[in-house]
Amino acid sequence: MGGGKRFAVLLCAEDSDYVKKRHGGYYGVFVEMLAEEGETWDVFKVANGEFPDDDGIADFDGFVITGSCNDAHGNDVWICKLIALLSKLDSLNKKVLGICFGHQILSRALGGKTGRAITGWDIGVTSIHLSSSSSKLFSSLKIPTTLSVIECHRDEVRELPPKAEVIAWSEKTGVEMFRCGDHILGIQGHPEYTKDILFHLIDRLLQLSFIEEAYADVLKAGLVKVEPDKEAWKKLCTGFLKGRL
């Protein structure tokens, strides 16, 4: 049972028609992975300027920041407002889980630096390695120390915030996961994604000329051969958000 807890998804992207039709939008994708019986899940479309009221923040047990097509190092009005909100949530010791763009903007809000990844795009299923300290942190979950996760990003955390700790890395990305205290967790990958969502995203990136057709074909061929560790990620993310680590 969820014990009547209340959580909010801070939606930083516009839903594609595909994701809306297949999964009920990105909000639906996160709820499917994270929600448990007895909980309330709200959504705030922060990319459209929709934010929780300052007075209402205390009512939530935790927040999830989604991915986005925007750059976490940008200065759009909504991004600056989101940074201020995240700083406030940190000061209140609220549980905050940041995914992809959410991971990057969380780092920035707490004093870290983000930017274009030196190694370029990382798209596909990536193996990430948990640090020895995170292996202890997640020991009750009984998950492997190497996990596969879907990735789709060309930005990264370049410099950690003060007091933050890297808890996972990959061959391509030095900060795959970071934590700050017991209430902040950033994940560069997309634990919530299914392979069909990534297939669709590859097509969108190709249409927008972000990637070349030959590269898109290679990515799709590679996806057929591997699977993300979705159940392990579900355990990790719910365990963190709900204080079960």
From TrEMBL:
Record-linked Gene3D superfamilies: 3.40.50.880
Principal location listed in the UniProt entry: cytoplasm
Protein's GO biological process: glucosinolate metabolic process; proteolysis
Descriptive protein name: Cox19-like CHCH family protein
Protein biosynthesis listed as a keyword: no
Domain Glutamine amidotransferase: 57-194
Pathway: Secondary metabolite biosynthesis
Family that this chain belongs to: Belongs to the peptidase C26 family.
Record Pfam families: GATase
Subcellular location(s) per record: Cytoplasm, Cytosol
Gene Ontology, cellular component aspect: cytosol
